[in-house]
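Workshop exercise sheet. Pairs work together: one partner reads the sequence aloud, the other fills in the structure field after running the prediction. Swap roles for the next sheet.
Pair: D.N. / O.F.
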Amino acid sequence: MHIDTRGPRFGAAVTTVVLAVVLLTGSAGLLAWQALCFALGTALGVQRSPYGLFFRFLIRPRLAPPAETESPGPPRFAQGVGLVFSLAGLAGYLFGQDWLALAATACALAAAFLNAAFAYCLGCEMYLLLRRATAPAA
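Structure field:
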């Protein structure tokens, strides 16, 4: 089953806003929320994450059918990458290492922004590179 490419992009736009607010406010609670969203997207698939469900039930019905679909694997992997960075940011807040919290959050924000603004998913590209690197030689 393929997914509408606009869904992950919508999620990336919301994530961009959330992570920007985290950087502006230093809110560990909001970063924890984003980590939960990443965890659900990793475990259940991006289409079942909170932002994916919002897109599916409230936004997609108002749009034309998708012109493009994609495999859910790369966006799901990208959610895992986001989870790692958000957990690193939370660890920074928890252990009083603000530099780590800010750097990890900023990295996640940059990746989310690239996806939202330019449809360039860094995590998806990492997934494809790893698949090629681990594929048996032909």
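Discussion prompt: Residues 92 and 99 are 7 Å apart (CA to CA). What would you look at next?
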